[in-house]
Amino acid sequence: MKKIGTQSIETKRLLLRPFIKSDYQAMYDNWASRPNNLLHVTWDAHPNPDTTRQSIARWVDCYQDLGFYKWAICLKETPEYAIGDISVVNKDEKINSCEVGYILGEDYWGQGLMTEALKAVLAFLLQEAGFNRVSAEFVTVNPASGRVMEKAGMSYEGTLRQAKFHKGQVKDYSIYSILQSDL
Fold this sequence. Notes:
By secondary structure, the protein is an alpha+beta fold. Helices cover 26% and strands 33% of the residues. The protein has helices at residues 24-32, 49-62, 113-128, 143-151; strands spanning 9-10, 14-17, 70-75, 82-92, 97-104, 133-139, 155-166, 169-179. It has an 8-stranded mixed β-sheet, sandwiched between helices.
């Protein structure tokens, strides 16, 4: 694994770039303030834009660490306007693996944008950053997330039954992964 930091990535329709402090309002408006958008993630809606501003300020500081990977997802035609985020949420340097997590504002669902972003980040992490394995997990009540992983080239590894305490309930979750050798 090479610690090369979050670098901008372009796809056909997207620009994935490091967050900047001014992204807080777009993040708050597009996903951080929307409970429906946050049903399947580990955190709750932000009560106000200042909470979002503080989160982004911490992330911007973390970009000094070249082992930190977090991208704002933007449409190419509006590169200054974040519509989602994708990031490495866990790393295991001993086995050269990481786990990714992602979220997209619900106004942008159903267009294949998350799959496009995930494919690009997987390629970056496996080919450029040199991870051997990238995994992702989702609570099974959100099968759309599993479809994104599958369409991005990840393989289903299994479902852990009643293994995750999530939003006040014990839930099943599934895991997908991709190896460098799968590319």
